Amino acid sequence: MITAESLMSIQKSDLQEAARALKKEDAPQLIEWLALKDDSIRYQALLLLQNRSMFCDDVYLHWDTLRSKLKSDNSYQRSIGLMLIAENAKWDTENRLEETLDACLEFLNDKKPLTIRQCIQALGKISSVRPGLNNRIASRLISFDLMAVKETMRKSILLDILNVLLIVRRVHKTDEIESYILNALSGEVLDKKSKKQVELLFKCG
Questions:
Q1: Residue 202: pLDDT above 90?
Q2: End-to-end alpha-carbon separation of the chain, Å?
Q3: How far is CA 104 from CA 116, 145, 160, in A?
Q4: Exposed site from 85, 111, 187, 194, fewest CB < 10 Å?
Q5: Structure pTM?
């Protein structure tokens, strides 16, 4: 059984190996540690669970707990729930994400730009493994009010959105998505370097 001491002894470079070595009964303890006020243990538990989710579905078994975190008063707990739900979307054989997606999309209304970015990046992970949700994801991202966030964050958030839309359009091209990307490439938010990167991916797609 994993202990706090053994958890904290794991080096960042060894996280994947440690995640593979976990036992199924370790997952509940790690999930419990996510609620701790101790940042170091909580963050290490999150990293280990994220790595575990790459190749095993034990964390998915705690979907209800993760979903409940989306409604937490604590913004960090909400982000934890969002990130782990995104990591476990590929294990969602019961289609729980169908009714969880709206709660995830609510993060786009968050006051913190960092949380908004975490949300968009999470949507990218969901989109890549759950193409059936692409229409809902793309529609919400296209309608996101970029001008409502502070100017210094607009470029980063727009790039996040474009990265997700580029994933979506591999299997779900629409006039709205094409128009949004082309408008971003002709607009003033992105710099020349960013536009070239997006344009290359756009042409390849």
A1: no
A2: 46
A3: 10, 17, 16
A4: 111
A5: 0.92
